[in-house]
Specification:
Length: about 260
């Protein structure tokens, strides 16, 4: 938490170089009249592309083939994978990030299911998806990908019972927030092959500990919270972060996350 900085009497505004603001004590900021802004609208393409990088890696067993080749095992029979074409993709969340993922999925001729709190027939037609309940999405999808914010409702949204509903051939992708998944339950599901694999860019506790059981599993691809990280997205994030400050100095505000505080 950014506690000590907030308590400085000269501080008027915090401009976060990121979308998430769970590392800021907003109640403390409110109490000291400090405006907190973030960068909510960036890296859509980067995260969406990375989602499919993880999915393709797992479906085509790229990581396993690479590791075996480095050990001198040059045998294609160990690496028979599956195509993305015509598979069913389950997208949890249809915000800007989820929409980008859906657009790419159509390029693979995928059948797209989605679960969101804001569904409508018009939205389903516009996105080219079928809105279903969570249980249906989990049981029918070949790939489940998460694009939700971390809230009290989404914390451990995917636990043991949800993982049990998934196909044994399915994979789970998380480029959103680590705590949306019950990591202990996921490790068990991967160990017992209740699901085929997982691609994780985020974790319940970051950085990932070297004694994490996830590191012992071969059916998981792990990356250090880099889905957003491209040269293009860094430039975009920096521009908006600086613009937030410029707007504040000019007497206007944008992208404020604690809207009860007014600029002075």
């Amino acid at each position: 938490m950014l506690m000590h900085s907030i308590q400085r009497p000269s501080l008027k505004m915090i401009s976060l170089w990121q979308t998430g603001y769970d590392n800021v004590d907003l109640a403390e900021a409110d109490g000291h009249g400090v405006i907190v802004s973030n960068v909510p609208n960036y890296a859509f393409d980067s995260v969406a592309e990375f989602t499919f990088a993880l999915a393709l890696n797992l479906m085509r067993k790229v990581h396993a083939a690479d590791m075996n080749l480095r050990k001198g095992k040059f045998d294609w029979r160990y690496h028979i994978g599956n195509e993305l074409m015509s598979k069913t993709l389950g997208v949890l969340g249809t915000g800007n990030m989820g929409k980008r993922v859906i657009q790419i999925a159509h390029g693979f001729n995928m059948n797209v299911l989605s679960n969101t709190a804001h569904s409508s027939p018009e939205k389903a037609m516009k996105l080219g998806v079928k809105f279903v309940d969570l249980e249906t999405l989990l049981s029918e999808s070949d790939i489940v990908t998460l694009h939700l914010p971390l809230t009290s409702k989404t914390n451990h949204m995917i636990g043991a019972s949800e993982l049990a509903r998934m196909k044994p051939t399915s994979i789970l992708i998380n480029t959103a927030r680590g705590k949306i998944i019950d990591e202990k339950a996921l490790v068990e599901a991967l160990r017992t092959k209740k699901i085929a694999g997982a691609g994780l860019d985020v974790f319940e506790k970051e950085p990932l500990s070297l004694d994490s059981p996830l590191l012992e599993l071969e059916n998981v691809v792990l990356t250090p919270h880099i889905a957003f990280l491209s040269e293009e997205s860094i430039d975009e994030c920096t521009y908006i972060c600086v613009e937030n400050v410029e707007m504040f100095v000019a007497g206007r505000t944008q992208n404020v996350v604690n809207t009860r505080v007014r600029a002075t």
